[in-house]
Write a structure and sequence with these properties.
The protein is of the alpha/beta class. The protein has one domain: Ribose 5-phosphate Isomerase B, Chain: A, CATH 3.40.1400. It contains six helices and five strands. A five-stranded parallel β-sheet has the order 2-1-3-5-4, sandwiched between helices. Helix 1 links the parallel strand 1 and strand 2. Helix 1 crosses helix 5 and helix 2 packs across helix 3. The longest helix is centred in the first third of the chain and has 13 residues. The chain is globular and about 45 Å long. The N and C termini lie far apart (about 50 Å). Bound molecules: D-ribose. D-ribose (RB5) binds next to helix 3. D-ribose binds next to helix 3.
Length: about 150
């Protein structure tokens, strides 16, 4: 059975999100398109919250989020302790966010990242495993962050 992947964007990531939806469907993924579905302006925290719900309720294990730069929506997504969202601009980041950070959400900027680079990043993100070991210790600490003097 093919993996189910959720995608979601605000208006700034709308065009690139739709291209990714089509590409991933062609690649055989079961795609859950959480919107947005028009170019009308929406607030990226609301879109990040839709992705958080899809992951928390087990509809998907992994997803891809987009806004104009990817910055706002990655900040929003990372407010949820079970999300490790990585804003990525190239293949190296896409590989390392999986190998070292066990990222479960890839974030791309619809106004900053070209379509071919975005496709490459998505492909690498979806095909790269977590290395565990010392990285597992560090990732575990992300779930228990407290201030240190
Ligand atoms: C929306 O205009 C824009 O601010 C948003 O897409 C994103 O780039 C925010 O970080």
């Amino acid at each position: 059975m093919s993996e189910k992947i959720a995608l979601a964007s605000d208006h700034g990531g709308f065009d690139l999100k739709n291209l990714l939806v089509e590409k991933l469907k062609k690649d055989g993924y079961d795609v859950l398109d959480l919107g947005t579905y028009t170019k009308d302006s929406v607030d990226y925290p609301d879109i990040a919250a839709l992705m958080a719900d899809a992951i928390k309720t087990g509809k998907v294990e992994r997803g891809i989020l987009l806004c104009g730069t990817g910055i706002g929506i990655s900040i929003a997504a990372n407010r949820f302790p079970f999300i490790r969202a990585a804003l990525v601009h190239d293949a190296f980041g896409a590989r390392l966010c999986r190998q070292h950070n066990n990222a479960n959400v890839l974030v791309l900027g619809g106004r900053t990242t070209g379509v071919e680079v975005a496709f490459e990043c998505a492909d690498i993100f979806l095909h790269t495993g977590f290395l565990g070991d010392r990285h597992a210790r560090r990732v575990e600490k992300l779930s228990h962050m407290t201030e240190k003097e």
